[in-house]
Amino acid sequence: MTHFQRIGIVGAGAWGTALANAIASKNRPVVLYARDPAAAVEMKKSRTNAARLPGVALNPEITPTNSLGEAADADAVLLAVPTQSLREISRELAPMIRNALPVVACAKGIERGSRKFVTEIIRETIPLAQPAILSGPSFAADVGRGLPTAVTLAASDEHLAADLAEALSSQTFRLYHSTDIRGVEIGGAAKNVLAIAAGIVLGRGLGASAQAALITRGFAELSRLGRAYSVKPETMMGLSGLGDLILTCSSPQSRNYAFGFAIGRGQKPADQSHMPLVEGFFTAPVLADIAREKKVEMPIVSAVQAVLTGRVNVDTAISGLLSRPLKSES
Catalytic pick from 191, 232, 268, 327? Predict the structure, then answer.
């Protein structure tokens, strides 16, 4: 039997609440931390999170709380907060974390400014923790309602990754384990930027064939970046790579896709600092910089960055991509 019996989740948004429901479905106690005291009280009273995940009842094993220490008093802690907020909450959490406690990032992105991946942020801010990451093709509404979903859990220690995957899995929420942390992080970060591109393509009315081409060539970019970091090819082909890319680039449930779709329809990519859940907005410039530094060809990512910063308009970006020289697909 796994020794991860009590799970703490920091972040009571849609994703944190969905994860809590999935994990608690195996009769495993889950403490769900909400920064807003009123939100915690309301969840305790109504046994729902109507503001973030409407129509989904909280499993009886979930204990909502406004106490960060209560969430930290667990056998493993999941951080279900946006990437750009991860450093702040990790610093608050650090004094409460005991030695070797697994702390699992559940966000997909790269920190602006530092250009750190999520487990690097955890390693810097919570030195006692064992960092891990959970990522893959998953929408909060599906996971929260118990619809079949499969994702990846990566940690540097294979036994830890396997134990966590077993502990957090349920009948309908399946976790496959890996030690390729950086590969999982790259897949989660890059697909958000590519999802913005896919949304733009569909919003511009360019059709399903263009969408398929965009996803395929986007995967080629993701794979090239992975090779620059010496990640495992099977990670790029797996759930946290290709799987997440396909889902996020093909559904309006994706905030990144929906954001790109609105841009394709003519809305201006105004400052979205008030929308931290559109992770691709923040990741695009960082990813483009990393690609240039590592001399990795990522034209779609570069085009998205150019559109988001206002350097080119959508039609110019699309024209630039279509006029690139033809070459061997390999």
Answer: 191
Residues 82-120: tens digit of each pLDDT: 999 999 999 999 999 999 999 999 999 999 999 999 999
Contacts of 325 (CB under 8 A, 6+ apart): none
pLDDT at res. 276:
57
Apex 232 CA angle, 228 and 234, nearest 5:
130
Residues 25, 171: contact at Cβ < 8 Å? yes
Rounded CA gap, 269 and 316, in Å? 15
Which residues are registered as beta bridge partners of 33?
A: 10, 65
- Runs of H (alpha helix) within 126-254: 140-144, 158-168, 181-203, 208-228, 233-237, 244-248
pTM listed for this prediction: 0.94
Is residue 66 within 8 Å of 37, Cβ to Cβ?
yes
Count CA within 13 A, CB hemisphere, residue 67: 9
Q: What is the pLDDT of residue 275?
A: 58
Look at residues 188, 241, 223, 232 and name the one whose alpha carbon lies nearest to residue 330.
Answer: 223
Phi/psi at 141 (nearest 5 deg)? -60, -40
**Structural contact between residues 41 and 12, judged by C-beta atoms closer than 8 angstroms:** no
Let me know: does 172 contact 180? Beta carbons within 8 Å.
Answer: no
Domains, the chain, in order of start with CATH, read 7-179 (3.40.50.720), 188-322 (1.10.1040.10)
> Whole-number mean pLDDT of the chain?
94
What one-letter code names the amino acid at 72? A
Backbone angles phi, psi at 233, to 5 degrees: -55, -35
Contact 23, 30 (CB under 8 A): yes
- 191 catalytic per annotation: yes
In sequence order, which ranges of 1-145 are alpha helices (DSSP H)?
Answer: 14-24, 37-46, 68-72, 83-93, 118-125, 140-144
Nearest CA to 49 among 32, 24, 29, 71? Answer: 32
